[in-house]
Each structure stands twice: as structure tokens, then as C-alpha cells.
Amino acid sequence: MPQTITVDGFTRYARVDRPDGSYRNMLVDNASLAALREDKPAEEMMILMESFSGDELTAIFVKRREAGRWTYGSIRRGEGMEAFRPNPPCATCHRAAGAGDGMFTRPMLDGFVKAGDVQRTFCDRSGRSPCSPDVYARTSR
Fold first, then answer.
1. For 131, which of 16, 90, 96, 123 could close a Cys bridge (C-beta 3.0–4.6 Å)?
2. pLDDT tens digits for 30-43?
3. What 3-state class would DSSP assign to 28?
4. SS3 (DSSP) at 115
């Protein structure tokens, strides 16, 4: 299994496996993680989603919250956050899927903050289709 491939300053909190053999590693920026561990709000949070097909990293999606609003986009492997490219349609999908504050994996992040173990779940859908919301509440370590 490949190691997490990201820019520095992030911690993996979850893995979401899919029926087509792909999976997603979910990472949160370390400053936000520290705030959440102290039961403080993380106002300027950043989440990375590394998308893998087998052992190959196929994409790194980014969502960052600034001033209470999420911005979605991507970077390429080996790029830093200065290469962030916004992609507004991502926000539409997150809102339409009922992702609460726009964060599908929030239950998994909360579980990681509480237990300290990377959370893992199996999505009921292939490709880039959002998982059913209850999938993220059913995690294992």
C-alpha cells in the first residue's frame, strides 16, 4: 500500500475505500487539527483528498475554509498550495449531497480527533460519486 503523498503540514485522518478498488486518503492541516484537539473552532481549515487507483495517485483535491466559506479545487502531485486551482462546481455537489457544513467526512475527522486512530470506511459508490452520508458515520480503525 502506498504511503500518503502530500505537501507538508497535514495529517491523515481517514481512508475511504470504494467498490471499484479506488480509495481516498483524507488529510487535515495540522493547525486545524491542533485547534480541534483543544475543542476550539478551526476557522481557517484546509482538507486534502488524495485519490488513488490501485497504488497510483490520480488527483489531489483541496478544500479550504476562509471567513466561514469553503473554496474547492485541486493541486497536482509535487505542487505546493500556491498552485491551488479553484473549481467552483465542487461546492455545488457538496451542498446538493447534504454534506452539512460542506464536509462529507466530518464524522470521521471527529472520530480521529477523539480516538487518535485513522478512521476507515467503505463507500457504496464507485468513481467520483459522493457516498451516502451514513457511510461516513460507519467507520472502523
1. 123
2. 999 999 999 998 88
3. strand
4. helix
Please report whether residue 42 resides in a domain.
yes
Q: 30 in a domain, yes or no?
A: yes
Measured distance CA(33)–CA(35) in Å, rounded: 5
* Cα–Cα distance for residue pair 23/52, rounded to 1 Å: 5
Cα–Cα distance measured from residue 110 to residue 74, given in angstroms and rounded to the nearest whole number: 24
Separation between Cα atoms, residue 9 and residue 98, nearest integer Å? 29
Cβ 124 vs Cβ 19: under 8 Å: yes
Taking residues 60-68, what's their average pLDDT? 86
Specify if 98 maps to a domain: yes
Question: Is position 99 within any domain?
Answer: yes
* DSSP state, residue 136: G
For residue 103, give the nearest of 18, 14, 39, 31 by alpha carbon.
14
Between CA 108 and CA 136 the distance in angstroms is 6
Please identify which residue in the block is written with the cell numbers 461546492: 91
